[in-house]
Amino acid sequence: MSLNRKRKKELRKLQAQANNLWESQQVLVSEAAGIAREAGRQLGNFNREQLIPGVQAGVDKSKQFSKQVLSDKVVPTAGAVVGSALSVWDAANDTRSRLAAGKGFQLPDAAAYAKKADKYGAKATKKIASKLTVLDPPKQGIGAGGVIAIVLGVAAAVGVLYAAWQTLRADDELWVADDPLRAPDA
């Protein structure tokens, strides 16, 4: 089969255009790979610098708040309740012993009972506080923030790879050849 000069010239021009397109596609693929690597690196930096410290600060703040509520509110209230109950019990026993002795319902000294109630309250508060100390459990392995960061990193990497695949799969001729220096035959 012989081709005239005009057709040969058009085919050479088409071959040159195909070679230019091929080279630009190879450059595009290498730039996309570089962008994907940089996006992964930036996501790792974001996780290390922003996400993990924020999650850790929230967890620490929650622990501190729990300790504060326990030591400032729960323990003193429980101690006061126990102390009041013990002082009422003691007063009832004193009243019973006075009635048995024939002295009647008259209280000898109200200040003495207030002093006893304070003493019982302080003792009960100390006892309960010693039993309810909050200890931080030792850290074991990766926490919730680390898991979230890993999941977000994997999701971002999958998204970048999927976008690159969608870009390159539209046309079979856009795939990179095994031999990048050799252009496809026209």
Automatic annotation (TrEMBL):
<protein>
    <recommendedName>
        <fullName>DNA helicase</fullName>
    </recommendedName>
</protein>
<keyword id="KW-0812">Transmembrane</keyword>
<keyword id="KW-0472">Membrane</keyword>
<feature type="transmembrane region" description="Helical">
    <location>
        <begin position="141"/>
        <end position="165"/>
    </location>
</feature>
<keyword id="KW-1133">Transmembrane helix</keyword>
